[in-house]
């Protein structure tokens, strides 16, 4: 028996989003983005301070993103050994608090690492921070969906992703300010010891949010996915029996890879090819991550209203509102905004592409992957600021890919959805490995040409978009009905 698409998930009894619960939960999404994007500032700082090659500098990304895989493996192993799901046993709120506590421990390592000038200890601190993030990710993504009607669950996840990217927009600017001071100070000196205070403050914030979440009304055990697209799928013994998940795991690996590696190699490109000072790169890294916020705010409009005319209007207002946040933050940090005004025209490409996708995640994945390839090729075959804008616009076209891939990969998994979600989060390690690969290619050739690695990643995503549509249709799942998601 084939179920209608909107019956794949067990529906919550809520008819509206519980914003009182969603808002404190969204704070953890902010932290993930703040730290991940700040790594792009740490990379050039560590590279100079510790005299690293380009591939060695990418160990920052590897240490951070491999922790997601280690964390997922620990979670699966503990669940297996105790013959029960760990998160279900200790509860969602306790799991979030535990994850935040682990991350706080990681920030403490920055103090002795800075005093000793130890690169390995710095990497260890980032690894432990991300280890806590792994547990938080496993809990927070399904919880965001559960805090309201399932019909807008994916839009809540997209909105949470937009809050994540508020963190990615602010993070590089604050860390850069902590190291170099204000943009007008003219300071070009960098000190490893200057990273101690911002990360210790971050650790205190982790603990404060853990307490806030423990005191909140978040549900400990939200309703889980229990139905499947058809009886054949329901009888499968493991999430790994589903081809959409197996191919989707590779898709998550290369998606996070191209998203992270594009940004993490951009500082070296701007320094070496364009003569930028390290302290002047932060606004462009901020713009890259703000581009994901711009795209995700656009994709989240359906969570606020069912009125089609209002949605059309918001699709133009939301991205420029997000762009305005980027401009305001950089103005406050005393950065020159002149180079960024032209980016408003590039945002139009995102808006029209979003409208052309018509809410179909497979179509959106195919379209945005094609635009990602085009952006990287333009960046590779041009010089100067055109290439910088092209590489930066990759953030726009990555913005909706996590929700698309995640939705496609777990559709039809039924009772195996939680397990499948854990496998997908495990593949976040692609952010480290693809960055390392691009750094290796850059050392062999040039940083400019190393972006071919990202082109290959987008090519696989386009293949997945084409292939998975047929797989899901054979299981009775038709994505011409509206649904999407978010990271």
Describe this structure in words.
72% of the residues lie in helices and 0% in strands. The chain has 487 residues and is mostly helical. Helix 5 packs antiparallel against helix 7 (119-146) and helix 13 (282-299) runs antiparallel to helix 14 (308-332). The chain is globular and about 55 Å long. The model is unreliable at 1-14, 224-234 and 482-487 (pLDDT under 50).
Topology (SSEs and partners):
Elements: H1 19-49, H2 54-57, H3 59-81, H4 86-90, H5 92-108, H6 110-116, H7 119-146, H8 153-180, H9 196-215, H10 231-234, H11 243-264, H12 266-274, H13 282-299, H14 308-332, H15 343-357, H16 361-380, H17 384-398, H18 401-410, H19 417-426, H20 430-444, H21 452-474
Helix pairs in contact: 1-7, 1-8, 1-9, 3-7, 3-19, 3-20, 5-7, 5-9, 6-7, 7-8, 7-19, 8-13, 8-14, 11-17, 11-18, 11-19, 11-20, 11-21, 13-14, 13-15, 13-17, 14-15, 15-16, 15-17, 16-17, 16-18, 16-21
Relevant terms:
487 residues, mainly alpha, 72% helix, 0% strand, disordered N terminus
The helix tally amounts to 21
Sheet with the most strands? Answer: none
Query: pLDDT below 50 for ≥5 consecutive residues: which ranges?
Result: 1-14, 224-234, 482-487
Terminal CA distance: 32 Å
Q: Classify the beta-strand content into a percent band.
A: under 5%
TL;DR?
The protein is mainly alpha-helical and 487 residues long. The chain has 21 helices and no strands.
């Amino acid at each position: 028996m084939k179920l209608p698409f909107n019956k794949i998930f067990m529906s919550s009894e809520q008819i509206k989003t519980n914003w009182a619960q969603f808002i404190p939960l969204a704070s953890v999404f902010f932290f993930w983005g703040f730290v991940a994007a700040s790594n792009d500032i740490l990379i050039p700082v560590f590279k100079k301070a510790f005299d690293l090659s380009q591939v060695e500098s990418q160990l920052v990304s590897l240490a951070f993103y491999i922790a997601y895989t280690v964390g997922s493996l620990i979670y699966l192993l503990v669940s297996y050994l105790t013959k029960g799901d760990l998160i279900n046993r200790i509860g969602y709120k306790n799991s979030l608090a535990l994850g935040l506590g682990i991350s706080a421990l990681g920030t403490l390592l920055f103090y002795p690492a800075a005093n000793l000038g130890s690169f390995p200890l710095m990497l260890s601190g980032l690894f432990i921070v991300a280890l806590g993030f792994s547990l938080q990710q496993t809990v927070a993504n399904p919880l965001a969906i559960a805090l309201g009607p399932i019909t807008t669950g994916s839009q809540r996840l997209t909105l949470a992703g937009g809050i994540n990217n508020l963190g990615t927009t602010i993070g590089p600017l604050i860390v850069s300010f902590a190291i170099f001071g204000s943009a007008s100070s003219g300071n070009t000196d960098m000190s490893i010891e200057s990273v101690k205070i911002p990360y210790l403050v971050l650790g205190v914030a982790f603990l404060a949010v853990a307490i806030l979440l423990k005191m909140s009304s978040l549900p400990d055990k939200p309703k889980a996915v229990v139905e499947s697209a058809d009886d054949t799928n329901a009888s499968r013994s493991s999430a790994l029996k589903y081809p959409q998940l197996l191919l989707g795991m590779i898709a998550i690996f290369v998606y996070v890879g191209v998203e992270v590696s594009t940004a993490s190699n951009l500082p070296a490109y701007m320094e070496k090819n364009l003569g930028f000072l390290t302290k002047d790169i932060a606004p462009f890294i901020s713009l890259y991550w703000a581009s994901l916020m711009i795209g995700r705010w656009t994709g989240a409009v359906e969570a606020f209203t069912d009125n089609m005319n209002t949605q059309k209007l918001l699709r133009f207002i939301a991205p420029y509102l997000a762009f305005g946040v980027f401009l305001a933050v950089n103005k406050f940090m005393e950065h020159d905004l002149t180079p960024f005004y032209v980016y408003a025209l590039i945002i139009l490409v995102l808006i029209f592409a979003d409208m052309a996708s018509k809410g179909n995640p497979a179509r959106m994945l195919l379209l945005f992957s094609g635009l990602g390839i085009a952006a990287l090729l333009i960046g590779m075959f041009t010089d100067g600021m055109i290439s910088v804008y092209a590489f930066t616009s990759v953030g726009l076209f990555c913005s909706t890919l996590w929700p698309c891939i995640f939705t496609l990969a777990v559709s039809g998994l039924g009772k195996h959805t939680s397990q499948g979600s854990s496998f997908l989060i495990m593949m976040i390690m692609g952010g480290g490995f693809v960055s390392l690969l691009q750094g290796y290619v850059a050392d062999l050739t040039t940083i400019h040409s190393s972006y071919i690695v990202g082109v290959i990643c987008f090519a696989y995503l386009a293949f997945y978009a084409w292939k998975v549509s047929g797989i899901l249709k054979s299981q009775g799942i038709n994505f011409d009905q509206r649904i999407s998601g978010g990271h």
